[in-house]
Amino acid sequence: MDYRLLSNKKIGLIVLAFAPYLVALGMQVFFSKQLSVEEVGVFALVWLFLSMVLNLSNWNADKYIISKKDISKDEIDEVFTFEIIVSIALYLITVFFFRDVVNGYIDIKDSTLFWVAVGFMFCYYPLTRTRAILEKRLSYVAAYSPIFISNIIAAIIGGVCIFQGFGLWSMVIWKISTHLIEVLILFFVSPYIPRLRFNLLHNSDILSYCLPLFVGGAIGFIILNVDRMLVTSFLGERELGLYHLAFTLSHTPFILRELIARFLLPIFSKQDCNEKKIQIFGKLNGILQIFSVLSAILVTYWSDVLFQLVFGEKWSDAVPIFVVLYYAALYKLVGGFSVTLLSSVMRTRVAFDVSVLNLVVSVPILFLTIKFSGLSGAAIGVLVSIVVVTIIMYETSVKNFCNFGFLYYLSYLSVNFTSLYIIFTFWIDNSDGVMVRVLATLVSLAFAVITLPINSVLKRAFPKLLSTNSKV
What we know:
α2 packs across α5 (112-127). It contains 19 helices and no strands. With 472 residues, it is mostly helical.
């Protein structure tokens, strides 16, 4: 009975943590139906700038707070003070030196209110470190309820704005409102609110942990958005709108990585030995590979039908881009937890190394593929660069720590993705139809089951289930 209650509690927490992203996804669908493809493209430009602001102000101090055992309130105050000072300094530099450039970039005239909002976005991450305090205490309901409530309220605000004629700025108001309301609620529910403390005694510890994550995140932001920058430069607003929707929807599974990482890091930090961490990592890897393959089968064969039903004809050109980007997102989902594993043993330098490698690999690939193949080239370039970086990472850092590399942790996923590509290319493209797609789905499902023994994927994912069956 206790196990059942515990399981129900865990399921409830996962639903609570995932619910805000479902609300945001629903709002993305709502705005995409209300606005033109070009308007969504302009919003993508505005959000690209605001995302850069969020990235520059995020030193990942929440991971420092969670990972460090017996951290004092004074040290939490030092972390908060450090981040808030850096955020305010960056905001002032942006306002004084880059305000006109940004105004011209996003084509905004009366910008006073917008820049007030930008100031808040610079301070968003320091102001949400109260969530890390709740996560460290395993108070997940209190930690994740604020963002769910804020998404609901902001969705209402965004809906009102769109019907009041605010156009694409309704999406901007919706996004900023979500962040602002979350901060306000966190201040009410947190057991401790960090204070300014200018006597920074742990500055070197904070920097040694957070600097590689910050630099890696900054480089990662460039990598994550260089495709959108190049699409804007080589193509235009309509193409950027199509790419933005395809990218946003395709990376929905990637949200799972962020959610699971929040639960996983505290769990890793409480393990007494590295072997237990590797065992948990292997189990999670097996579960995610199976989930990824099953979802990829659905996406590969039925995305165009779903797009027609949900978004309409105007977004049909986004379907093939969405499918390829979905594959890329699944590689990120399954492969990305290695960074969480290595961060739990204070190997945060890996995040920096991976980001640098990503930059070196992805930029030239994306430049060439987008320049010569347009939107489809952008999606293919993202997938190829992610696979290359994942192979290198797993064959170096992960293999050094776990004694297993890419073939052990991602071969099941890769084999099934290859089979999906072959079936779609040589079967669906030549003789499409509902029955053909149903048969292709069944064939791919059968192949996914047959290949489960690869590197003990099923055994790693569900060891207790298999051991019970063997006893019977």
